[in-house]
Amino acid sequence: MTAGPIKLAVFGQPVAHSLSPRIHRLFGEQLGLELDYSAIESGVHELPERLATFFAEGGRGANLTVPLKAAGLELCTVTAPSARLSGAVNTLKHAPDGWHGYNTDGAGLLLDLDRLGIDPAGKRILILGAGGACAGILEALTSRSPAAISVLNRSPERARRLVGQLRHRGILYGGGFQDAPTLPAHDLLIQSTSAGHADRLPPLDRAWLSATATAYDLNYGTSHRLFADWCRDAGVPVADGLGMLIAQAALSFEIWTGTHPRIGPVLDGLRAR
Ligand code: NDP
To answer: How confident is the model over 255-271, as pLDDT tens digits?
Structure first.
């Protein structure tokens, strides 16, 4: 008897636009593994029931995307430090005692920064936005010994709260965009707001950055466009978040299958489309 495909899925709302099924199909092809990876629409309230049905039908691993990452934490019997520290789960793996939860966003960002040759060590980092994505990357960035990290958000209190939880991990500042002129110039700008999805930009000023600063946008595709334009006009080299998306997916894939796919060929494949 042959084992069937490994049954996996991404849950979210909306989820139809997700690139995850395509990315994981490419991973499976690369490693000769047969996968059945689907996209399942679910809001927060339906998640426990949808996951139970998925498991009963043979599902063994799942990704969670907006708006389910915080809710996912409640459903896990075991959570990795990455999930606990960020308060969000993006990867679930089924074990005999229930779902185990992980967050691969932070490690995914670090993998992509390594690929791009951007070293956070000793840098003054400015993160715009303090939502779930920022929570996922903040702890990982502190592990690379930056000189300081400033998190500025439209709702300043959200940034202060997030930073307050990690204060012991380094020099962190949390506040509103209006605080930027009072801070020393930053060397690495990380754009983690979702403003681009509404064709908007968070407040930005070239003077907030050092002369040699670089930028990284967690967004990609059309939601990256306005920020890319701003960076070009300001003379700041910028990378989009497609590499991070694939890297965090590769880390999920490794949690489920024990094998780490190569990111480069999948990135080339998606860019070519
Ligand atoms: P959340 O909904 O949790 O947070 C959204 C954030 O954007 C908040 O800080 C919010 O501020 C801010 N924001 C929204 N609109 C504006 C605006 N017009 N001006 C200024 N700030 C604004 O989303 P996530 O944190 O989960 O995701 C953020 C982005 O990162 C998304 O675009 C997502 O697609 C992307 N992402 C990419 C990943 C990748 O692998 N490349 C992984 C995860 C996310 P406020 O708190 O004041 O509302």
So the answer is: 999 999 999 999 999 99
